[in-house]
Amino acid sequence: MARNDKRKSYQMREINIIKDFMPNAQGSCLIEFGRTRVLCTATVQNQAPLYVPEGTGWLTAEYSMLPGSTGTRKARERMKYDGRSIEIGRLIGRSLRSVMDFTAIPGITITIDCDVIQADGGTRTASISGGFVALYLAVEKLIEKGQIERSPIKKYVAAVSAGMVGGTPLLDLCYTEDSSAEADMNYVGDEDGNISEIQVSGEKRTITGKEFTDLLMLCRQGVDRIIAKQKSVLEHKKEEE
């Protein structure tokens, strides 16, 4: 199937990550998947929720879309939170918590805020991938200041989407592809190929076992590519081709 941007079915959009984008935040980045742009920040509080075990910390996340991020104005979430935003915020939090050891941040809560500046598909997966970068930078500062002794981050984690469009499995869907997909997958995985979460939705039909496997393989390749980008930004390592 020919894609509007002439990518192959297995190719991702261009990924760009600008770290320390918000100097007042303990950790931050602007992440871009093609025309999708998300501002991710990490804020540290020296207080843990009452429901977490003593001697541990916590991470939570929130997600929102700015009014001008879509073709029609997205209303601000003042009095009533959008159910979709709440669900995505929970997904981001679960994804990042899956690679953390909370005994390393006793009595500390880290809040990840992901604000979509421009939406063109894949905002939740970009938020997870960028949220990890903001988290990593915040943890670095905690260690530098002597507030914690070791990093709570056990592994890198990232997320990507894929979908069946016109009967063809495509990686990293833009908005036009996502809106016409028969089914889509959101995949969250770590640097060792382990899975944190998979969401599969049959938007217009069910998918076969082979189609599920095809989408899964595409997503694993995509996550590897994103993690290589994260490492190139955070550790100054050269990305793998």
Q: Helical region count?
A: 4
Structure class: alpha+beta
- Name the overall outline: globular
Distance between the termini: 24 Å
Give the low-pLDDT segments.
none
**Overall residue-averaged pLDDT value:** 92
- Determine and state the CATH class: Alpha Beta
Radius of gyration: 18 Å
List keywords for this structure.
Ribosomal Protein S5, domain 2; alpha+beta; five-stranded mixed sheet; 9 strands; single chain; 4 helices; 241 residues
Provide structural commentary.
The structure is a single chain. This protein has helices at 83-97, 123-144, 175-180, 209-234; strands at residues 15-19, 27-33, 36-45, 58-65, 109-118, 157-165, 168-171, 183-190, 195-201. Helix 1 (83-97) crosses helix 2 (123-144) and helix 2 (123-144) runs parallel beside helix 4. With 241 residues, it is of the alpha+beta class. The radius of gyration is 18 Å and the shape is globular. The chain has one domain: GHMP Kinase, N-terminal domain (Ribosomal Protein S5, domain 2, 2-Layer Sandwich). The protein has a 5-stranded mixed β-sheet with strand order 1-2-3-5-4. A 4-stranded antiparallel β-sheet has the order 7-6-8-9, sandwiched between helices. The model has no long low-confidence stretch (mean pLDDT 92). Helix content is 29%, strand content 28%. The protein contains 4 helices and 9 strands, in the order E-E-E-E-H-E-H-E-E-H-E-E-H.
